[in-house]
Design a protein that fits this description.
Blueprint: E1 3-6, H1 10-20, E2 25-28, H2 35-39, E3 45-46, H3 50-55, E4 59-62, H4 67-71, H5 76-81, E5 86-89, H6 95-107, E6 111-114, E7 117-118, H7 121-126, E8 129-134, H8 137-147, E9 151-158, H9 162-190, H10 195-204, H11 210-221, H12 230-246, H13 252-266, H14 277-283
Parallel strand pairs: 1-2, 1-4, 2-3, 4-5, 5-6, 8-9
Antiparallel strand pairs: 7-8
Helix pairs in contact: 9-11, 9-12, 9-14, 10-11, 12-13, 13-14
Length: 286
Amino acid sequence: MRLGFLGLGVMGVSMARNLARHFPLTVWNRSANKYPLVVKDTNAMVGETPTKVVQESDIVFIMLFNAPAIESILTKDFKRAIRGKTLINTSSVPVEFSQSLATEIEKAGGRFVEMPVSGSKVPAEQGQLVGLLAGNRGVVEQIRPYVEPLTCSAVYCGPIGSGLKAKYAVNTLLVTLTVGLSESMNLARAQGLDLAAFSQVLAACPMASAYSKIKVQKILNEDWAPQASLQDCYNSTQLIGKAAEQANTRSPMMQLCAKLYEEALEAELGEEDMIAVSKIVGNSKQ
């Protein structure tokens, strides 16, 4: 099977490289400067347009920034080219958009699978993302071999929308953990503790995880290079807030986290790692 990949951001580059090691792959990105990161040492090819990628592929992955970015590529030619092929969207978008996208692709004669992923840059590089699959069960089972190079686990969550709902719930823990970790480190700093020693305490505690260890080290090193950008995390808080409202449930911690991430955006930290919210947590004194 020939694969295509649209969107070579922080996550997309690593995902595309992992696919290219196993399958013939054609890639596209809005800015050409990302192509060398994928084609170097792989057999990946470059498609001039999203439609060209679809024409050269049997299965096409999308990892674009948001719903408007996806809408911008859905030209008439794109829809004609998708007939008889499968589109797998790994981007985080609203449930309603995913459902309408599925309808558009199916009307065009294609098949649609929803697969947002849990994980950031390092798991993406290692092929250790968690895939949250949704859609027609038969179609999902048919494409499983082609998501294996990306994932440590790919879980079927239900009909279209279910994968995204799972992603919102997972990211609720992720975002609150990130803010909580930031607050913990800042309190240690404010009390005059040796942060290197305190990081060893955190690493030895039952709450420690691979994620917390990576983010603590980034704080210690003042390394703000994005593994998942702060802008992406803010967008996630907005999707989660809307999901909680639609589900008629409370999400008080997320409301607070969203405000902190909004402050971080206003402080022009959007291109830094999501743990850069620690700068705002440390400066916030109500």
